[in-house]
């Protein structure tokens, strides 16, 4: 079971550090909730459930731990304002799914957003997610 108060404190600290470093407070941020599981099939079911809730999913990767065991990792991704309440709400929504699947929540991360950049890292349409790239479309139905 995860302690939401501890997660909220970590979220507040991450946001504070980003803003202190000069990241754009008004930008939309890619929020990546990191998850891991030893069983690929169970991880896949978890991410399909998250996808049905409206999240995007990064491609799962196989990682060898120091002890030689294999785990599968991926990110459950959204694009939102850098707001601790929004991130905490996402954690409240995702953690029951993660626990039910027997997966491990490894926290969340994002990227620095330069307020002085003229470049749009999201491409010409300003959208991070490519609507044509629907890996789980068949699973959603």
Average pLDDT works out at 88
Low-confidence stretches: 134-141
Write down the secondary-structure element order. HEHEEEHEH
The computed structural class is: alpha+beta
CATH fourth-tier homologous superfamily: RraB-like
CATH topology: Alpha-Beta Plaits
- The CATH class designation is Alpha Beta
Q: Would you count the extended β strands for me?
A: 5
Task: Characterize the main sheet.
Answer: 5 strands, antiparallel
Strand content: 15-25%
Our count of domains comes out at 1
Shape: globular
Helix amount: 25-40%
> Based on the structure given, which CATH architecture is correct?
2-Layer Sandwich
What's the number of helices? 4
Please tell me how large the radius of gyration is.
Answer: 16 Å
Whole-Å distance between the termini?
A: 30 Å
Biased composition (Acidic residues): 115-141
GO cellular component, one term: cytoplasm
InterPro entries: RraB, RraB-like_sf, RraB_dom
Function: Globally modulates RNA abundance by binding to RNase E (Rne) and regulating its endonucleolytic activity. Can modulate Rne action in a substrate-dependent manner by altering the composition of the degradosome.
